[in-house]
Amino acid sequence: MRVDIQSLGTYNRLAQEGAEHAAASLTQMTGIETYVDVTNVTLMSKQDVEDVFGGTEFVGVQIGLGGGLSGETALAFDQESAASIVDVLVPGASADDDGEFDEMAQSGINEIGNIMMGGFVDGWADYLGASVDMTPPNYVERAGTDVLPDGALDRAEEEHVFVFESQMTAVDQEIDAYIYMLPEYGAFADMLAASDDHDDAIPMDKLTVFDEMTRQGAQQAAGNVSSMTGIETDVDVSRLSFVPIEDVPNTARDEVYIGTVMEFKGTPGGYLAILFDEPSARTIVDATVPMELDEPLGEMGESAIEELGNIMTSGFIDGWANVLQTSIDHTPPELVHDMGTAILSPIAGRLGQSQEYAFLMDSTVVTPEGEFNCELYAIPDERKLKEALDSLLVERSDQLEADQESLF
Amino acid sequence: MPPKVLIVDDSDFMRNLLREILEENFEIVDEAENGVEAVELYREHDPDLVMMDIVMPIRDGIEATSEITGSDPDANVIMCTSVGQEEKMKNAVKAGADGYITKPFQKPNVLEAIDDVVA
Amino acid sequence: METYGRGTNSTRTRRRVGIADFAVTDDGAVLTTSGLGSCLGVGLFDESAGVAGLAHTMLPTAPDDADNVAKFSDTGIDAVVSAMRQEGAAVDNIRAKLAGGSAMFEFDSQEESIGKRNVAVGRTTLERLGIPIVAADVGGDSGRSLRFQGDTGILVVKSAGDERRL
User: Does this entry carry the keyword Hydrolase (chain C) (predicted)?
Assistant: First the structure.
């Protein structure tokens, strides 16, 4: 199947507008000013979904969709956010000793879910020119992936799923809410399918393969950090999502990072940012540089971060180059120390001159003991990515390693 | 007399690391930060071995290697880089590189690769 | 729509402006935006009407078929000005303050950086509208966060640990 990027963009916009309606409803009902942070469409395997949701306790509402748009939705709050909302919405309702909400509270959450999801699907129904039916809300308090509708993951067993995700955040409070929508794969694929003569189409099977290659690239990059620091690492999340170009900067958190930015040129070409929060950068430098350093990192510390960026970049892009039997150059790493959004903004700006959406590959490298974490953002140029996918031979997708022995 | 080595890498940190690994058994004649400096310092010192990074500003390591081996066919150059792309390795071979070490490396890998080249 | 709970009618004092987004206030709200790198922040204030607006634009010039006018410095400024007029502002009384337009990296400043071009287009657009720029904190290589006080028109710029009031 080939996917039409324009229609993927249209659906992303519908989800964004839907989430804005939902956030407006939340604001209206609670008086808590909220906004939509990011809306993305992610292509996920079951493993991805588990990585993303793993380990977090959610309170939420599940609602099934039918009619013009079939699939499953969930509105999810973390426990504390739900408590804040219940507190405003149903004063007097409370959680018991185990943190479980009483019936009044649950009913409040159900009602808010009903209204928010109603707002979310309205735009879809208008666009599709068909009514979208909603099942009654089903209240859930669950850990991790269980907050997702039953059956959603069973389908992911055999194929990837598209997951629409919108994050909503309160302006003045620590409240986060998420809307997930998992359209039924077959029906949605039909909605996305491009006609054969479409120039702008992306081959879906190859995109999935590329996603897998990228995941392995992130593993390689993580392995390289381990070699340099002697600290065991793992890739926590690695996903390929489709976002409006102006949302790219917001995928980094609103905090200060130290890291490096590289431009890579070839097929594919694009940009890569490797970002550490400040304590993580310090930990990395202390583990790598065998000397006392000035504050904050000293010249040698900054050089170590640059070199780490260099080595991680290679880990990340070399697999692409070897599978595609091409070479991908990258600029020397540039050290950055600033807010995440500000760091990503010129990248979005440069790509935004020729594309409205971006395929964003973000990965998080973590350590078992929580010594540090590292966020990788790879944002290929859309045209270059398409060229790369066109020339990708699926049967070569495991040829990530160069055959150095035969050359030297 | 210990063999003479020229270290070429744009990263302070990496030059430092290589120096620590090599200074016991080699004479480090100089350090270059880019491909242009590498060619100049090679002519000046005529070292027995060059440890050459690939991705550097101004001029990359493959171009510099090509120029060095072009004027001195006996030059010993070991690429010492994070790049693990087969096409790049082929280009390095074409440019006249004698060995290839992929970062991140451990001391024994480096010494072993040098043994293979400077016998 | 039915409303629920307490606090529904409380005045909201802070409004967040995203990227490729703008907001207008006629009740003195504080308009904020964060993580401006190469993007441009434009604070507009009509003191006599008590109307303020803040835009956060990403790209210099809009194409003819722009889907989101707030994304571009030229159409974004036009949009916030017309929204302010709907709230009672008069173009002749509007004053502008600019912030942002950094070149965060070297490869970004090759050719002319997006940041520089955003600032240039911002200036031209305001000139076309006849809106004077009374203060600017633009360029450099650091990100900025903005707080625009809708009651006073003061623009607070935070950047690299520094705070400046324009």
Answer: yes
A352 to C71: CB separation less than 8 angstroms, yes or no = yes
Angle at A20 between CA A344 and CA A341, to 5 degrees: 10
Q: Which residue of C has its CA nearest to A335?
A: C105
Structure tokens at A75: 């509105």
Residue type, A113: G
Alpha-carbon torsion (A132, A133, A138, A142), positive or negative: negative
A125: tokens are: 């129904």
**What residues of chain B lie within 8 A of the CB of A227, using their CB?**
104, 106
Counted across chains A and B, CB pairs separated by less than 8 A come out at: 87
Distance CA C108, CA C86 (A): 38
Nearest C-alpha of chain A: how many angstroms from B89? 7
What pLDDT is recorded for position A155?
Answer: 58
CA distances in angstroms from A402 to A223, A224, A329, B78, B90, listed in the order given:
17, 16, 16, 17, 10
Tell me how far apart the terminal alpha carbons of chain C are, to the nearest angstrom. Answer: 41
In A233-292, the residues whose Cβ lies within 8 Å of chain B are 288-289
Structure tokens that stand for C145 in this block: 């966060």
How many whole angstroms separate alpha carbon A108 and alpha carbon A110? Answer: 5
The answer to whether A24 faces chain C, any CB pair under 8 Å, is no
- Domains within chain B, CATH numbers bracketed: 4-117 (3.40.50.2300)
Domains in chain A, number: 2
Domain CATH for A48 = 3.40.1550.10
Task: Return the partners of chain C (3 or more C-beta pairs < 8 Å).
Answer: A
* Structural domains of chain C, ranges and CATH numbers in brackets: 14-165 (3.30.1330.200)
Q: According to the 3-state scheme, what is the secondary structure of A226-279?
A: HHHHCCCCEEEEEEEEEEEHHHCHHHCCCCEEEEEEEEEECCCCEEEEEEEEHH
User: pLDDT tens-digit profile of B61-78?
Assistant: 999 999 999 999 999 999
Q: Which among B9, B12, B13, B65 is the top mutation candidate for probing chain A, defined by the most A β-carbons within 10 Å of its own β-carbon?
A: B13
Q: A274-290 pLDDT, tens per residue? A: 999 999 999 988 888 87
Q: Are strands B4-8 and B27-32 parallel, antiparallel or unpaired?
A: parallel
Cα R_g (chain C), whole angstroms: 16
A7 vs B41: which has the higher pLDDT? B41
pLDDT computed for residue A159 by the predictor: 65
